[in-house]
């Protein structure tokens, strides 16, 4: 015990970060993790005293009592206490709450560790500061704003729609963007147009090239239909194709700036197909440190939550030496490339970059997982590219006259690759290839005229990458919150990802519509962006955090009172459709239940026929029939999955002519020796799903988690079971001594 006297205590938020710092600093320091926040607003009540200037009522997070007790004990032994959670608002809040619990009259020092490397930690220890109240208050204001909206709006949605729904200050605006894009797509009316391409041959070249019709009588070529296209082709048959003008110019393509949080999320989504959440998780691992064999645990990148493209002078020196060594002096610009951060960026942070230029992706590849390597290489390549010379492209544009028609051909030749040698960027409108040498007056041979039909397209649905870009451009949320926004929308069932594009569900469309109707300020994109600016002003000490909350709550409470009286009760609505009940012939109605929209017979409760449905791309209703390979035991017809009082089951598709049914099997044989039954899906009287043997009551084997017909690769168990943790699905072995698990 006495050996620890005189040591300095460093408290970080992450165990991985603690291990890395511990290895770097050695025995003179005690490094411990708080494992994230230790305090938060209570789960089961508002936790904000609105009457007392929005005073937050923080409580110790369940399970953190032991952590706090250990940190208090260590702080009493330490001669100096350093708080080193992440260098942002969230980290400042963690540090503030730790200080309240473990300070005990001792001086507290705040460390800002921008890179978890020996140099980065030494730099932080040389320049400790006190806790910054304005940073903490900005985070606190955001937390209270989100709590007020969530705790006031969610019960209203429970009352008007169904229980279990939620609304959020920023997530609801993101949902609105997705829903409005969906409505644009559904309402879009395609317009037909045509293009004409000429395949031409120059006498000096064996290979033909293409030119596109761009002008007719010196006006932009507009071809509305096939009839007009055919008429143009007919009039071109006898025309000579003469080169009218040849324009050659050198075009420069400048290297991209280094990554900030949002651009890293976008590029990782586009290039690596990583979700935003996955990108931030892996980036956190690279920042906090990875075991690199004899080198020990090393942080590979600088802090990944930043909106600044600032680069430290020593990093510029390091990357310039690396570029010269790897590619030669000809790829190095005379002076370092400079980039301008967007307005309002926090220049205290650097851009995302490699922490050491001695640790190339290839050198550390064997120590990294596949995903860690791919993301690290993306960051490495982008940072090298940002300090390399621009690419030089020879661009040739040829205008070709054919009577009253003008065709244009474009060719590009890469003269000097510059940064493209390490970080390839292809422009959307870029056409590869070169043109044959031509000069004004050359006559070209027409090989073929090709008409092509096109239709105008609506704006595409958002991908994770394009949604992040839109949120950033509109000032909604902050890059550090994008992953949480997207995850929440998916987990609440408001949106679905299909082919990597966001599709709002009927529930999402309804919730967005109701909130826009009744809370126009909260759902206004501009209002949300201005609120982010107010939070920045709190941090800059230009406005009080209580003033911001008071101003917000005045209008919000008025909208809330009005909505409680006027918001329509969707749960009571019955929307008639043209679909007829196959049991009694009455019209079917759209109603809302526990699991969202469904079709119900208008003769309910006399007729209890109900069906699930979906809407197609045009918004038309399609009844959901989950077909199976099973055959009806009575008539041999195919069976479909239906929902009943005691859960899902198999029913003959010819119902009501045939009433054959079967329990819904899982494909897993009952593990009870000698039983021979199958595990089927069932439901208790209270509606809880479970899985039991099909030979019940002879066999009473039961599982509460869905079994999956896959043998365990570790111990050979004939099946795995599905479990959920923090919104993610895992497949785990049912044998307690095995411990095998994998992501589902």
Biggest sheet strand order reads 26-27-28-29-30-31-32
CATH class of the largest domain: Mainly Alpha
Low-confidence stretches: none
Distance between the termini: 46 Å
Helix content: 25-40%
Arithmetic mean pLDDT: 88
What's the number of structural domains? 6
Number of strands: 36
Biggest β-sheet strands, sense, barrel: 7 strands, antiparallel
Radius of gyration: 32 Å
| Outline type | globular
CATH architecture name of the largest domain: Orthogonal Bundle
Q: Name the structural class.
A: alpha+beta
Strand content: 25-35%
Tell me the CATH superfamily of the largest domain.
Topoisomerase I, domain 2
Number of helices: 17
Q: Which fold name corresponds to the CATH topology of the largest domain? A: Topoisomerase I, domain 2
